[in-house]
Structures are given as C-alpha cells and as structure tokens.
Amino acid sequence: AFFARSCGDMKNLRVLVTAAGTREPIDPVRYVGNRSSGKMGYAIAQAAADRGAEVTLVSGPSVLNPPANVKTVQVETTQQMMDACLAAYNDMDIVIKAAAVADYRPHDVAEQKIKKKTDDALTVVMDKNPDILKALGERKEKQFLVGFAAETQNLIANAKEKICKKNLDMIVANDVTLQGAGFNSDTNIVKFLFPDGEVRELEQMTKAEVAEELLNTVLRLRKS
Ligand code: CTP
Ligand code: CA
C-alpha cells in the first residue's frame, strides 16, 4: 500500500536530517526565533531509522524527544547548524533539510540583559545568516539533496526558484497558512517539486505518512 514501510530498505544509507527552528540570541535572556516545532523533521528521521538507515539529526531547540536509534546533534543558532551539517555532509547519501532556519541574526548580542529605556521604540539591527542548504548544494557530490519551502504566497513559483538556486534534487513545498498543515500541526498538506518541473500534490496526511512517502520518492529517484 501507499504508506507501507518497506522494512530495511534504507539499510547501508547515511541520512542527514535537520529539524526545528534555529534561534538567534539578542541578549542572555532573549532570542529571535520562529514557529517551527520540529515535528516534520523528527518524523523523517524516525522513519528513515526505522527503515534501517544510519541517521544523523541536527536539531534546533524542540520539546520533542530525540527519535530512537538516531544520532541527534542539538544546536541553537544558524551558524551552529551550518557547522554541524558541513561536518557530517561528506559521508551522507541523502540530506533532508526540514529545519526552519533564521535568515537573520542580531548584529550585536548584548552581554547583559537589555534594560527597558524611556524611548518608545527599540531597533535591533540584523545581519544575514549563511544559507546552509545553498552551501550544501554548492558542495554536492553523491548526495541526494531535499529542501523544504515554507510559503504564505506564490507557493509553486517560490519553491521552483529554490530548487534552482540551491541545486536541489527535490523540494517539499508547504503552504503554512492552510488548516491542517504547517507549524505544530500533526498533519501536513505538501507538494513535491522536482528539477524537471514536475509537481506532485499530496493529500492531507500525518507528518509520519508524509515522511514515508518522501523517503519512498527519494529511494525511487536515487535508483533511476
Ligand atoms: N535554509 C537554509 N539556510 C538558511 C535559510 C534556509 O538551509 N539560511 C533552508 C531551509 O532549511 C529549507 C530551505 O532552505 O530547506 C528553504 O527555506 P526557506 O526559508 O523556505 O527559503 P529561503 O531561501 O530562506 O527564502 P525565503 O525565506 O526568503 O522564502
Ligand atoms: Ca527563510
């Protein structure tokens, strides 16, 4: 059937998954973050491990328990996620970047808690973070590289552009405004897009089911 686990069909494959959101500190007690829960990435890591893969999960802060039989590396900032991904990358067969990565970080991280002042506004200047997935795409050799795209508009066009810009083999496009999809939901409604322009729309399903179908698709494409 569609979602059936083909037991052991990822044996001897090394898989890198990133999950959850990165956080960028402002001062010792505050950070800039996003709404990612980590559920999608953790489901992928779990599914790949259950199918026999050797899985490394690089995760931003999440309340979820690390999946069994997975090497989990906990990180906080985008730079830390980048370092962990680059360190693991060369050995990998499949890389799936489900993490919601902070695009910017505060330029200055205050050493002490920032005190409330008399002004009515506070300006935080932000610097651009490195694009982890783009860096991995530039260094791609044998790796099958899967990105995610979280969009609130122009889903297909934006996701297609990311396939090209980041040298991906596939992207999972997510309209995060839909009910039953996106942040913290147990279900997701996604589209798989490929470099040849193919778009496959999946029905609403659990994130565990999306994970299985994503891995089925990756295995099929790696063979061809
Ligand atoms: N990504 C990354 N490093 C970043 C930003 C994004 O690795 N600094 C990865 C995400 O993990 C995801 C993919 O790139 O797999 C797309 O992320 P997304 O935020 O949708 O796209 P961006 O390229 O950041 O563009 P924008 O936020 O402007 O839509
Ligand atoms: Ca982004």
The helix count comes to 5
CATH class: Alpha Beta
Strand percentage lies at 25-35%
Helix content: 25-40%
Mean pLDDT, as a whole number?
95
| Intertermini distance | 21 Å
CATH-scheme architecture = 3-Layer(aba) Sandwich
Q: What ranges have pLDDT less than 50 throughout 5 or more consecutive residues?
A: none
Strands of the widest sheet, in order across it, are: 5-4-1-6-9-10-12-13
| Shape summary | globular
Q: Over the alpha carbons, how many angstroms does the gyration radius reach?
A: 18 Å
Main sheet record: 8 strands, mixed
Listed once per kind, the bound small molecules are: cytidine-5'-triphosphate, calcium ion
- Helices and strands, in order, run as EEEHEEHEEEHEHEEEEEH
DSSP E strands, number: 14
- How many separate domains? 1
**Structural class from helices and strands?**
alpha/beta
**What fold name goes in the CATH topology slot?**
Rossmann fold
CATH homologous superfamily name? CoaB-like
Can you give a write-up of this model?
The longest helix has 17 residues, at 207-223. The protein has one domain (14-102, 125-223): 3-Layer(aba) Sandwich (Rossmann fold), CATH 3.40.50.10300. By secondary structure, it is α/β, with parallel strands linked by helices. The chain has helices at 39-50, 78-89, 132-138, 155-165, 207-223; strands at residues 14-19, 24-27, 30-32, 54-59, 70-74, 94-97, 104-106, 126-128, 144-151, 170-175, 187-188, 190-193, 199-201, 205-206. Strand 2 (24-27) and strand 3 (30-32) form a beta hairpin. The chain has an 8-stranded mixed β-sheet with strand order 5-4-1-6-9-10-12-13, sandwiched between helices. Strands 2-3 form a two-stranded antiparallel ribbon. Helix 1 crosses helix 5 (207-223). Cytidine-5'-triphosphate binds next to helix 3 and strand 9. Cytidine-5'-triphosphate is lined by residues 78, 97, 99, 101, 103, 129, 131-133, 147-150, 162.
